[in-house]
Amino acid sequence: MANVTLTINSEQVTVPAGTKVLDAAREAGFFIPTFCHDPEAPGYGGCRICVVNIKGARSLMASCVTEATNGMVVETESPDVVEARKTILELLLANHPTDCLTCDKNGDCKLQDYAYRYGVGSSGFGGEKHSYPVDNSNPYITRDLNKCILCGRCVRTCAQVEDRQVIDFAYRGFQTRVAPAMDTNLAESACVSCARCVAVCPVGALTYTNLSGKGRTYEIAKKQVTCSFCDAGCQFDLNYKGDKVIGVTAKAPGEGRPLCLKGRLGMELRYSDQPLTPMLKKDNEFVEVSWPEALELEDVLAKLKELEK
Amino acid sequence: MNNLNDLRTKCQEEYKQKLSRPRIVVGLGTCGIASGGAKVMEAIKEEVAARGLDIDIDFTSCIGMCYREPMVEVSLPGAASVVYGDIFPDKVAQLLESHVENKTPVYEWAAIQIPGEATPYEGIDIMEKAPYYEKQVRSVTSRLGRTNPESIGEYIATGGYEGLEKALGMERQAVIDEVKKSGLRGRGGGGFSTGMKWQFVYNAQGDKKYAVCNADEGDPGAFMDRSVLEGDPHAILEGMMIAGYAIGADEGCIYCRAEYPLAIRRLNLAIAKAEELGILGENILDTGFNFHIRIKAGAGAFVCGEETALLNSIEGQRGMPRVRPPFPANSGLWAKPTCLNNVESYANVPFILRNGSDWYTSMGTDKSKGSKVFCLTGKVNNTGLCEVPMGITLREVIFNIAGGIQDGGTFKAVQSGGPSGGCLPTSQLDLKIDYESLTAAGSMMGSGGLVVMDETTCMVDVAKFFLNFTQNESCGKCTPCREGTKRMLEILHRICDGQGVIEDLDTLDRLSTVITKSALCGLGQTCANPIISTMRYFRDEYMAHIVDKRCPAGVCAALLVYTVDAEKCTGCGACLRACPASAITGEKKQPHSIDPAACIKCGACITKCKFDAIYKA
Amino acid sequence: MSACACGVEKVVLSHEEAFMKLLDKYRYYKGGLIPVLQGAQDIYGYLPKDVLQTIAKELNMPFSKVYGVVTFYAQFHLKPRGNNIIRICLGTACHVRGGAKILQAVQEHLGIKHGETTEDLRFTLETVACIGACGLSPCMMINDDTHGRLNPKAVGAILDTYE
Question: Scanning A224, B125, B382, B593, which has the fewest C-beta atoms within 10 Å of its C-beta?
């Protein structure tokens, strides 16, 4: 494929045609913040934090969806870009709880990182904030819509697995929220707790229930393992605090890698020093079950016992 | 190629025949019906039957003078047609007796006359010379109020489908060139060259292409498209067919807002009749050109007027705008090259093809050619629809056509371009209406609503009104629009409630700039215009609200003080009884007074007072 | 839905028949979701959960997506609505000519706020940004009828003509 050459912050950059400005800039070592951009599901362009100044354009352009073209002149940190990013951050913070001190995402939160980088300490806007009840109904995933910045990554990652598509945007404007059908909680929805959504959430809206309160993100070291339950080869992270595994989390989901609850629970049992109690949905309610049942190993175990005899 | 000559001759014969008979025609556009036109129609039918009159009863659409609806036209052979205004059922008997039976028009009810070849009546304005029409041109609106919109025969008899015939005899590129030469620009507000747009779709690779008509007219204060859809539905079909032929599309879709049931009904009827005559469908006029049109009713979301949101909506998705590029010309409906124009743009096309681009460019300014349809609303004497050549001044439109300010008031501002536009003050009245000058002045052409405001309109309140609108209609996809409109609205509420601080103006400035520059779609990028333009031209008014805690126009309730004029007050006690907050005190037959601390500023006292003794300021 | 002499069961059945016919018409039609929702709402007066579930299943799309579309558009309703829908215009022109007073008068007359339905399901009251009859402001729509040049005192009489 042909190449194109553009100028980013006075530097000549050559990339294959079709490359987005965001990737071109990052490739060249320039920083551009993103919330909604997901390399596995690109093209949304909604959060606008990645806007850059492109010479000749009427407005600032979202770099994640703008294709690099020959001769394009891009500035990634011009005063108008910085002003826009600061304002967008301030707008997001105006509608976001300020509980970073107790938030499990503290230290691994894009909103926090960018606010730090651009020196946005708090929002001066005041005004109405959402006050949705926190959804604790699912034993594995905690959903706090008050922290949601509507980047939609959870919606897109959920849609990548056929037959799931459990959540979508609902309502519009300021009332927009991510919701399962009929606005039920996660437990009542068709959610299978695969946690793809948790893996992609850039803020504290979706978190692992079992890791809550167990440690700050910077105290936790991650080690990647591959699940061997089926041939999809999904990858999980072992979360170490000191030398103890305190939980297993889903690593980045990808196309064709469904992640599944069974896989994650299996990894949990195998590696975790304090494995969580497995819960399965029966008659629309989560109930505690034995490990063999959670891992669907009851038949196998029964046969093994048979052989033992 | 088959031509329409035989059919046209037949239609013309029938139409001529019809015009030669005594006729009474009722205006039944939405505005006519809303003012009681249907009841007038019933009354006429009964009265004609009761009197045993030999007269045809027919209906037409909106002639534009909404302020005179219901309108009835009486046309007798050999005499000038007279269009009457404000004809309610109780006037029908006298009208028929005088004009039809005694051949004497009822002069005091007449709005205009259309003499044709007959001698005009003395004392009734001839349409072209009447103040309302003198400065107008009528091309897109030429059939409105003149023909029966449900009759394809009358459309054909009046030159309809001639443009299509001509186009089908031309090379496709030649059709596009003709539209390019006409200088026609998008009448939905953007002002992009229609011919260029067609060229992009023509050039785009693809086995399947679409022509889509944006009839999701949602700007408050705008009803041009509705009037054209209701009054000349075939013109839109014809325009779309010409576009379809030129760009290589075989399918068209009209996305019409569901709030326009009459327009949808007439479009459906028009499609059915055109298909019946073989003008629409397979192998049109034996040229091998196939074109089908279907109608999609909107579901109530203003943002669907944005072209990519509209396409998502047709596809059955949430109406959230897509990122551009790719532009619809390359990847539109179902990811196929799509030509998207609004109603008025399509409606212009048959006229351009039929009369030639030279005729079209003879109207308008250097960069804005042709005519534009506007809706005159707000505090003017003559509210209604008008079509004017580009380049006419705002003053001519507001003071000549719209007849100046209602109740002898003073002009304060005119709002154009809907929620994306701005408010222009007296100093801009001599501005020539074209795309560039309106934008430079801080407003925009928009779809064509002109809302006129007088000194009783508060400009901060107007900005608040528009922000409330956009905030409600924001789709929620992009952060600046979703969160930013909310915060701007909250600030405006604070200012109107007397809680504003001077820093609020800087915040509004900053938010306006950032949202304009960083929002995803046209709705977001222009949503701050009402604030920007009112802050530019009416900063004093903002200052009065913030610093003096005063609303100069007397609109913002929280800032008003209600006072009794002791000289005028007779002490009748009506206000005292009406006050829900018991804030009024006073002895009988003695001047009353209002306790400002208890007053809830509801205005009930003013409504009740018969002596104009209570005023608010 | 006034009392029907032919018995409740039959009415329900005909709704279902109409609904099935609607689904058949749009099952293989690209972009059929919105017309189906519009049709279903015409049949049932609103969009009950089981109807939405059936639509999702029959059109082979996620239930969450159907819900997302329903909640996006102002036209769709998840709760039962009145037999007559009043839409008070609060557009620019109506705003400057006293649309809010008309709203207030209607609210007082019906004893409900905008967005609500009267207990007897006779009226649902809504506000709308513009119905495009600005030349006649202030105005309102009741069902498909547009009423213009209103004044607060006269709205009661207009409402009384709708059963």
Answer: A224
